[in-house]
Amino acid sequence: MKRLFALFLTFSLLLSGCSYDQERKTGITEIKLSDSKITVDGKEITNDKTQAVYSDKDIVFYLAGQGFTYGEGEEKDEHEQSEADAHTVVHITKPGRYVLSGELSLGQIAVDLGEDAKTDPDAVVTLILNGVDVSCKVAPAIIFYNVYECSSSDEEGATKDVDTSKAGANVIIADGSENNVNGSYVARIYKSYELSEDGTEVVDNKKLHKYDGALYSKMTMNVGGGDKGDGILNINAENEGLNSELHLTINGGVINITSGNDGINTNEDNVSVTTINGGRVNILCDGSTGEGDGIDSNGWLVINGGTVIAQACATSGDAGIDSDKGIYINGGRVIASGNMLDRIAGGEQTYAVFKFSLPQSGSNTYTLKDSLGKTVGVYAPENSFSYLIVAGDELTPGTYTFWQGETQLSSSQGKNMQDRVPQWERPDSQNGDGQGKERPFDFSEDIEIEEIPFGERPQGEKPEFPFGEPPEMSSDLTPPDNKGENMTVRGDTSTDFIIIKGGNQFFNVGPVA
Question: Which of 218, 268, 336, 355 lies at a 20 to 30 A Cα distance from 211?
Answer without folding.
Answer: 336
